[in-house]
Amino acid sequence: MKTNVTFPSAGLNLAGILFTPDSHTGRAIPAVVVSHPGGGVKEQTASVYAERLAREGFAALVFDAAYQGDSEGLPRGLENPFQRAEDVRAAVTYLTTRDDIDASRIGALGICASGGYVPFAAQTDHRIKAVATVSAVDIRDLLVNGLGRTQGPEVLQSLLEQAGALRTAEAAGEAPATLTWAPESPEGLEEAPVLYREAQDYYRTPRGGHCNSTNQWVLRSIDQIAQYDSYAMIHLIAPRPLLMIVGSEADTAYFSREAVTKAGANAELFVIDGATHVALYDQDEHVTPATTKLTDFYTTHLTR
């Protein structure tokens, strides 16, 4: 079953969908907050995982981040990592207010950029009892250092110069400047990293595209992103469990490998053979083993 819900986050109303088991009788059950990728919305891969978790007996809450999708916030497309983490905490808070949710058994799942935001939120929010990610990315590392860390520090300095100028321009009445998350067209991508080719095929085609996923992020977000580090304090999640799922062929897998090493003995890296970063968004042959692992993880840590 799906129920449209709203809840506040730092003064903004967020739009969500609560998935519950079809056989749900109203008794308090464990729940998982599922947070979408950067540039994504709740109806895309987040709902793929939420629906499957609901089939396994969990309530699963997906939501649009502040400034994005059906949620409130201006300018549209702002990507503030600290707000994104606050949205995760706000989603947990909302679940604790519901009589049909067991507030002592709440977990969280972050996909792609939210694979950074969810662990970041969980570092200090002990209400999140089990933390998991799929195809995790540290958005600061990706945007500032480039995929595979191929960019030098001059890139960040240039972006910060632009961010300051753009704040001034907005104060003078200009519209916020934006960049695209994924290439709009496959043309010229033959030699591009797999991540960007996959992102174009998922977000900008009927495969995964959604009208609320505008593919735009506000460029001046970079002066907030630059101060953020998903995994600097990831050891604070312990002794609570951390599961990070990656594809063996994902060119972003290094984010999860490094985070698990930094997190300590409570953390597990689970590799799905043959999967790429975006294949784990919606391809059944890869989503199924990911969901099986997540179900076992949340069953172990939220239902016993």
Please provide a brief summary of the model:
This protein has helices at 45-55, 81-96, 114-122, 139-145, 153-171, 194-203, 222-225, 253-263, 279-282, 284-302; strands at residues 2-9, 12-19, 29-35, 59-63, 101-111, 128-134, 178-180, 216-218, 242-247, 267-272. It is α/β, with parallel strands linked by helices.
Topology, element by element:
Elements: E1 2-9, E2 12-19, E3 29-35, H1 45-55, E4 59-63, H2 81-96, E5 101-111, H3 114-122, E6 128-134, H4 139-145, H5 153-171, E7 178-180, H6 194-203, E8 216-218, H7 222-225, E9 242-247, H8 253-263, E10 267-272, H9 279-282, H10 284-302
Parallel strand pairs: 3-4, 3-5, 5-6, 6-9, 9-10
Antiparallel strand pairs: 1-2, 2-4, 7-8
Helix pairs in contact: 2-3
Question: What's the SSE pattern?
Answer: EEEHEHEHEHHEHEHEHEHH
Helix content: 25-40%
Structural class: alpha/beta
How confident is the prediction overall: mean pLDDT? 96
How many distinct helices? 10
What's the arrangement of strands in the largest beta sheet?
1-2-4-3-5-6-9-10
Computed CA radius of gyration, to the nearest angstrom: 18 Å
Shape: globular
Number of β-strand runs: 10
First-to-last CA distance: 24 Å
- Low-confidence spans: none
Beta-strand level of the residues, as a percent range? 15-25%
Biggest β-sheet strands, sense, barrel:
8 strands, mixed
